[in-house]
């Protein structure tokens, strides 16, 4: 288990960049006041990692919040992603410029390929390598890449991906993929840790909630971090943003970690990386 200390804690990427292991996701957050207020409150709460994407259509709002915040830009880890329709070498470079214009930033901390678009993602990866070489991004990675996608990229990559952001929750653990990423020094990161809300309708953490005096969301986020997985729970509600950060005063036992690991049902709430039309 990696060392989990507090909300300021990080996992080190293979190029030495420190990536905060808890962040704020902004998927489906409105580009106007909703995402601005959510990001501002997260930063006030102590978060130092904000995740967005071109397809979320809220990069402008995220950038606005960062500029309004009292937190220095260099202290905030900002992630965005190139969307599927923009993939390819030249088009990915243009998409990056467009994202930076919307964000109003001089550099990104992490830029990801959002999905492995067949026939394009290797050219897209070359574009990300150029951005990294030109020091416009501090780290580059992928999202929704299964092992065979990663192996395909690694065959041609001059720089190996630093992050793989995947759907990850107790019903979709994909331990073999996690192990592969660990072997290749690729940081695993979760999206939809709450199963797009399905988790809260299940009764899989009730005993643990009673045992630790924590909510189901807090149990699951703590499980993420103890597995060495970066978590970016999405919320626009101040109390939930605060609650999601209140996970550093307890530790799940080995037995409880194994219990949560054992719930895997290969159940996706999002698209299948081998079969998507996005």
Short summary:
With 278 residues, the protein is an alpha/beta fold. It has a single domain (20-261), classed as TIM Barrel (Alpha-Beta Barrel). It is built from 10 helices and 10 strands.
Structural description of this entry:
The chain is α/β, with parallel strands linked by helices. It has one domain: Alpha-Beta Barrel (TIM Barrel), CATH 3.20.20. Helices cover 37% and strands 13% of the residues. It has 10 helices and 10 strands. The protein has helices spanning 33-45, 59-68, 89-103, 121-133, 147-156, 175-183, 206-212, 216-226, 238-244, 254-261, and strands at residues 10-12, 18-20, 24-25, 49-51, 77-82, 110-113, 140-143, 163-167, 187-191, 230-231. The strands form 2 sheets. The chain has an 8-stranded parallel sheet. Helix 6 (175-183) links the parallel strand 8 (163-167) and strand 9. Helix 1 (33-45) packs across helix 2 (59-68). The longest helix is centred in the middle third of the chain and has 15 residues, at 89-103. The radius of gyration is 18 Å and the shape is globular. It starts with 9 loop residues before the first strand and ends in a 17-residue tail after the last helix. The model has no long low-confidence stretch (mean pLDDT 97). Pfam families: Aldo_ket_red. It comes from Pricia mediterranea. Keywords: NADP, Oxidoreductase.
What are the main properties of this structure?
278 residues, alpha/beta, TIM Barrel, 8-stranded parallel beta sheet, two-stranded antiparallel sheet, 10 helices
Report Rg: 18 Å
Distance between the termini: 35 Å
**Order of neighbouring strands in the sheet with most strands:** 3-4-5-6-7-8-9-10
Largest sheet: 8 strands, parallel
The CATH architecture comes to Alpha-Beta Barrel
What is the highest CATH level, the class?
Alpha Beta
Query: Looking at CATH, which topology would you report?
Result: TIM Barrel
Unreliable residue runs: none
Domain NADP-dependent oxidoreductase: 22-263
Keywords: NADP, Oxidoreductase
Protein name: Aldo/keto reductase
InterPro entries: AKR, Aldo/ket_reductase_CS, NAD(P)_OxRdtase_dom_sf, NADP_OxRdtase_dom
């Amino acid at each position: 288990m990696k060392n989990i200390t507090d909300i300021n804690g990080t996992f080190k990427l293979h190029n030495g960049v420190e990536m905060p292991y808890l962040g704020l996701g902004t998927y489906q957050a409105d580009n106007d006041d909703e995402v601005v207020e959510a990001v501002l409150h997260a930063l006030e709460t102590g978060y130092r990692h904000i995740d967005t994407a071109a397809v979320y259509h809220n990069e402008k709002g995220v950038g606005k919040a960062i500029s309004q915040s009292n937190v220095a830009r260099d202290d905030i880890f900002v992630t965005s992603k190139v969307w599927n329709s923009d993939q390819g070498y030249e088009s990915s470079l243009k998409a990056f410029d467009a994202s930076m214009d919307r964000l109003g930033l001089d550099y990104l901390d992490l830029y990801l390929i959002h999905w492995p678009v067949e026939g394009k993602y290797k050219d897209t990866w070359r574009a990300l390598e150029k951005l990294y070489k030109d020091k416009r991004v501090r780290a580059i990675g992928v999202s929704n890449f299964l092992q065979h996608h990663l192996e395909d990229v690694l065959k041609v990559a001059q720089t190996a991906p630093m992050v793989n952001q995947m759907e990850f929750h107790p019903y979709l653990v994909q331990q073999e993929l996690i192990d592969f990423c660990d072997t290749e020094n690729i940081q695993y990161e979760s999206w939809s840790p709450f199963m797009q809300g399905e988790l809260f309708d299940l009764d899989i953490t009730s005993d643990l909630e009673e045992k630790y005096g924590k909510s189901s969301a807090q149990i699951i986020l703590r499980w993420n971090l103890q597995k060495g997985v970066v978590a970016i729970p999405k919320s626009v509600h101040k109390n939930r943003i605060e609650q999601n950060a209140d996970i550093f005063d307890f530790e799940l036992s080995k037995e409880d970690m194994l219990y949560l690991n054992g719930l895997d049902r290969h159940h996706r709430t999002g698209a299948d990386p081998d079969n998507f039309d996005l």
